[in-house]
């Protein structure tokens, strides 16, 4: 079991460390280009090629979409009054508690822990998470919402087209599938390298606040997802993916939105770094629990 867990975690740590070391060695890395490439090209291709290849049970797909929606809303409903009572800036820190890093970290772990089915289910959770992060999350951070930005997001367009094809049993031509498979293949390593780059660039400006919010995010994610998995009767890979994705650290996008809207970005960056570092310690125990 320990060797199995090591085989899951090692690729994640190695890829992230390459990104971290790259920055520390003062090598150039265009984070803006990498982010655009991930959002506009590689991730849509990964979604399309994965769902075209993996025969996922439609009921399992819909159940996980529901579970992802329920966990995201529950995170917000619990975190909002607590942060408000503690007089912590909601615009800056509420999105960080609602939206785990289910892309950069979550997708590789889902694939390594649960195979191609896990990747498909992980992408399902990721899609729901991104939808709400780019709508509710952006509106909380900015104070308003841009539906034009939301509807133009290629991830949403891709998932809509892909689901139409999946639910109508339409197969993509080989040349389209092969092209998207190659382009989608760069997503996971690039996400992890970009995560390592972010960890090298961000700094912890307020240790007490960052530590408190990091522990709260990880603990909230685990408890809520376990309860919702029980409530919906999820089993096997569906249960594992829900809990794994929900217990990821704070998403890098929370920092990007905070920086864009000048919502205490240095402190939000600190929560991203610290929650990720803590998750490196908690992940072996989480995987041991899920794979036992």
Write a brief caption for the model.
This protein has 292 residues and is an all-alpha fold. The protein has helices at 2-24, 31-53, 58-85, 90-98, 106-142, 147-151, 154-167, 174-184, 187-201, 207-232, 236-246, 252-260, 265-291.
Per DSSP, the total helix count is 13
Poorly predicted spans = none
- Which structural class do you get from the secondary structure elements? mainly alpha
In CATH, the topology is named Na+/H+ antiporter like fold
Number of domains: 1
Distance between the termini: 8 Å
- Backbone shape: globular
Give the beta-strand count.
Answer: 0
Give the biggest beta sheet: none
The secondary-structure element order is HHHHHHHHHHHHH
The CATH architecture designation is: Up-down Bundle
Organism: SAR86 cluster bacterium
Keywords: Cell membrane, Membrane, Transmembrane, Transmembrane helix, Transport
Subcellular location: Membrane
Membrane topology: Multi-pass membrane protein
Secondary structure layout:
Elements: H1 2-24, H2 31-53, H3 58-85, H4 90-98, H5 106-142, H6 147-151, H7 154-167, H8 174-184, H9 187-201, H10 207-232, H11 236-246, H12 252-260, H13 265-291
Pfam families: Mem_trans (PF03547)
Main location: membrane
Membrane topology: Multi-pass membrane protein
